[in-house]
Amino acid sequence: MSRSFKLLNIVLFSISIQLTAQGIFQEKNDFTRQDTLRGMITAERSWWDLNYYHLDIKVDPENRTIKGSNTVGYTVLKSNKLMQIDLQEPMDITSVKQNNRSLDFSREGNAYFIELKKKQKPGKVNYITIEYEGNPKVAIRAPWDGGLSWEKDENGIDFIATSCQGLGASVWWPNKDHMYDEVDSMLMSVNVPKHLVNVSNGRLRNVIEKNDNTKTYQWFVSNPINNYGVNINIGDYVNFSEKYDGEKGILDIDYYVLRDNLEKAKEQFKQVPMMLDAFEYWFGPYPFYEDSFKLVEVPYLGMEHQSSITYGNKYMQGYLGRDLSRTGWGLKFDYIIIHESGHEWFANNITYKDIADMWVHEGFTCYSENLYVDYHFGKEASAEYVIGSRRGIGNRKPIIGPYNVNKGGSGDMYAKGANLLHTLRQIAKDDQIWRQILRGLNKEFYHQTVTSKQIEDYISENIGFDLTYFFDQYLRDIRIPILEYSIMNNVLKYRWANTIDGFNMPIEVSIDNNKQWLYPENSWKETAIKQEFIEIDKDYYVFNKDLRIVE
Fold first, then answer.
1. Residue 269 to residues 118, 276, 343: CA-CA distances in angstroms?
2. What is the mean pLDDT of the chain?
């Protein structure tokens, strides 16, 4: 990149900062009580810990209805008798029972408050059964505007799927719809017309034929699972399978695809073992050996449903045939297979407690694409890929959003999240240290819900450098650091500008044709050099400004 082009980038970025400061790009958030009920760990949620769900439902494609029940098992943490369960309009809870006794309940928007017969005793394990029915919200643009996709395949056969991240699983079934508390295990009994197949999370236990020309598919998940990771996928599916010899032994892999796409799938899905090779190397063992791995075709682009990854990339390389990085490397793999499977480690194994910290899912998983390229095509290729993704970064609002109102941050959590992680790889100085950090995260926070701060602190501790200001800069501010420098009389003066106070990220540069570490701060530092030129390592997501250039 030429110096003049770098300078133009800095000027344009400076203008965007000024516009943001004037409120041009600021987003007005008018949060409501419904946002609070959805996004907070309310008193009616905090007193009980989820143990078990049995979701037992009948899906009627003709009338686009779901009817059934959810049995909820829980441990009492402290004495209380008022429980919050979530189910979004226009779905309705019709009855709630405990020990065969009907319970009273009231509704406030999408939150139901259930009155138990008496205060529950701490330490007890209890159950309630919730019956419900209705026409769930139809997905308009799945998976971004989620709900139920009621589609037909090319043969006119029903092709149905759920997608509900952010929107919430309570759009189609009643549950404790907050990410902080994952259910320990879950049974899904899904009744569908006899000519259709339902595929859900975990392992298939039974297929029960009914007298009303329907079948019930029973799937069981033995690991903790987040609510939006639960799914139903219904269609004219055929199945093929293979076994993967992984770090924890033999992993069962199943593929469910539309009948007409079987041969295409057998070829395209050869990338799944390649994905597992790369991600088990970088992140550690696949987190759900007990529940197997499935790739399931759906009528939308795809989603990271735990042990039941959904796929709709039309058997194309890249993102529907496009390379988002514009480097060529993005066409070396099927984006949905790689990206959505990466979420098994970052989203399903390590899960955010609050969607404000969604970068923990999307930043790391966007970065996983880069590591897939690294494993199969080399480090230089992977650097080109992730740097190429920077063109999609807007820097108009922070990556981390507001807490306790079910509101995510900027879409920059994807490409900017990946690039801040690529920058951290440089700070780690040793790729094996960086690999151990990524593997260590998946071991330290195995099957846990976390805050961004926990992830930040773990990386800081294990990289050997206090990254407090680094994370505040890249996650909670929109400015990209500018390394300002000048060279006069063989003295290099340098500092960080366009940053929060205290920003002190080290950076590797080339001086006199030798690589050298600088430790800039907000105040000027200087060092003696022999030549009049330095080269800034492009792997760092920063700008640079040679003050000798007249603006």
1. 53, 12, 17
2. 94
Would strands 147-152 and 158-163 be described as parallel, antiparallel, or unpaired? antiparallel
CB 465 within 8 A of CB 427: yes
Domain ranges of the chain: 3-32+342-476, 43-235, 482-546
| Predicted TM-score of the model (pTM) | 0.93
CA–CA distance, 17 with 15 (Å, rounded to integer):
5
User: What's the alpha-carbon Rg for the chain, to the nearest Å?
Assistant: 25
Res 62 pLDDT > 90: yes
Please give the single-letter amino acid code of residue 51: N
Helix then strand then coil, % of the chain, to nearest 5: 30, 35, 40
pLDDT at 277 over 70: yes
Alpha-carbon distances of 518 from 261, 505, 509, 545, rounded to whole Å: 55, 9, 7, 15
Q: Which residue has the tokens 């920077």?
A: 390
Question: What's residue 550's pLDDT?
Answer: 54
Cα(365)–Cα(341) distance, integer angstroms: 9
Using DSSP's 3-state secondary structure scheme, residue 273 falls into: helix
* pLDDT attached to residue 27: 53
What is d(CA 123, CA 182) in angstroms, rounded to the nearest whole number? 18
pLDDT digits (tens, 9 = 90+) for 387-402: 999 999 999 999 999 9
CA distance 222 to 228: 16
d(CA 275, CA 122): 44
What is d(CA 295, CA 303) in angstroms, rounded to the nearest whole number?
10
- Looking at residues 165-183, what average pLDDT do you find? 98
User: Alpha helices of 176-261 — where are they, by DSSP H?
Assistant: none
| E strand map for 103-213 | 104-108, 111-115, 125-134, 147-152, 158-163, 185-193, 197-199, 203-209
Minimal CA–CA distance to 178: which of 432, 372, 344, 353?
353
CATH topology of domain 3-32+342-476: Neutral Protease; domain 2 (1.10.390)
Sheet holding 491-497, edge to edge: 525-528, 491-497, 482-488, 543-546
Structure tokens at 439: 């593997």
CA 460 to chain centre: 22
What's the topology of domain 43-235? Immunoglobulin-like (2.60.40)
- Rounded to whole angstroms, how far apart are CA atoms 140 and 125? 40
Type of residue at 210: K
Can you tell me the distance from the alpha carbon of 495 to that of 446, in angstroms, rounded to the nearest whole number?
39
In sequence order, what are the beta bridge partners of 187?
54, 220
Q: How confident is the model at residue 6 (pLDDT cuts 50, 70, 90)?
A: very low
